[in-house]
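G., before I forget:
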Amino acid sequence: MIEVKNLTFSYSKDKQALHGLDFTVEDGEIFGFLGPNGSGKSTTQKILTGILKGHGGKVSLFGQDISATHGPEFFQKIGVLFEFPYLYANLSAVDNLNYFASFYPKEQRRDVVELLETLEFKPDFLKKPVSSYSKGMRQRVSMARALVSNPRLLFLDEPTSGLDPSGAVLFRRIIEQERKKGTTVFVTTHNMMDADLLCDRIAFISNGNLVALDTPKRLKEKNSNHRVVIDYLYQGQRETKTIEAQELESGIPFAHDEIVSIHSQEPTLEDMFIQYTGRGLS
Amino acid sequence: MWKRFCALFKKDCRMLLSGKFFLMAVGFLALYTAYVNLGYIRFMQMPPYNVYLYDPAGTQTEVSSLVHAVASLEAMDAALLSDTNGVGLDASAEDVRVVLYAGAEHVDRHRADYALSLLRPSIGSALEIIGTNTPEQKARKEITCELLFFELAAVGFLGIAAVLFKEKGMGVIRVHAILPLRKNLFLLSKLVVFLLSDLVFAVLLTLLNVGLADGVALLPAVLLQTAILSLMMALVGLLCALLLKDFRQFTLAYLIIAIFAATPVFLSANTSVKFDWIGYHPFYHVYMGLKSAYFGAAVSPVYYIGSACAIALLFLAVQLAFRREMGKEG
């Protein structure tokens, strides 16, 4: 679906934002693109969505070089959720969506009210102006805008931003459903839980360079110290021991009456983020 | 493409409706019409100065009806004291003596000549009148032209910038970057909305203030000039709104345009003040084009070529600024 080879981009002569990125995104994959602020995430997404021109290297979407695919036909196939909910504040959710949907062929459009229902949008607010909505409601309308054209390729920038935990779960479920329909999803996020739970593969970008790319599970395994922490009871006392994982192959290698819990000590995705990018989450 | 343009056009109309732009335009139309018909024309028909004549022996036989007779020199002094712009004529001696409170020298000469001319009103019939406009019609055309220029240059310019600043503030310009439409349509729809609105305004303002019969005859030329000015101002408004950070900066730019760009044009075109460099001022030519339309004068083809080039260049600049805005961060 997406093929990027040696992608470079400079805003000016002495301000190179991307230093030769290489990655591919397969059809129907959810691909996470993670990196600190200013690392080149947005620049990459803007190049992929056709907003920024003048890049170096080769970028293909839908099997075609991106430089040749920037007509309306290209934009009919993609949906983009921006980091902020950009909507007409004086129009209602329905009017906003009908307006944005009107640029797509009729047979491609989804029913606006049905879509908002799927996103658990409060029905009382359907015809009220966006200016009266909460951040979560605006994010729901923005997601509906990205989905209204049934895109084959979906770009999501911080999709669960501004949502409460149940809203975030709902959004993750909807993204999963889109993938099941065959949609390819390119997610840019700081939310490591979203990345961990949603993405088939993730790429870490730092200072315009791709520093790691793999499945979340393998990335964590690669960086694991292969130890396990065991909580157990022995002679009425609760104790904790850390051992090498391979020691478990021949059973629990110490005296105990009852095992309370066993935790692997693999790093979290957040630890990976800090390790690869050299920066914490902001 | 047509459907997409219609969607943009409809949305722009809704934005203008919700921003009460059309209501404001109707309000301005009513205000201008009331000003022209109830104020300006009556004011223009008033004599420029009151003239008071003291003629105890009745030596002046042809005196105009505009002259106020006074019974004594004291009465004339009292009249001039309360009306310091007035002119007194003392005909008690053989030669008529002019009495007035001094102002600027050239104005005082005009006041004196005007007062003396009212003692011989028949001289006016020997003057050769050029042109077919009555004084009232001339005044109506002049003021309508000025008001239309002001409306297009100032109010329309502010209107389009206000709409675009709203869209910029809401971030929706960036959404249009990823919609399946030719990006120029976004700009074109705005230009068409404002152009149509300005053309309707020009028709109504001209018919209401110049009169139906004269107005209809002028309309083709007036509408052509309106279209040129409307497109230019809309493009300048779009450019400023795209380049400037917020409405406060825009207001400053607007003041600069209003004070430094429009003022010398009005002065040069409507008064005896002439600047050597005014020929290089683009607004001057546009204003004179509009004035020529109201007075049926011919306009040079060079002006039309220049206008077309200016509109094309402005459109290119707006396009560049628009693409820059679409690529901006949130």
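The radius of gyration of chain B is 26 Å. Chain B has two domains: 2-41+135-326, 48-126.

More on Monday.
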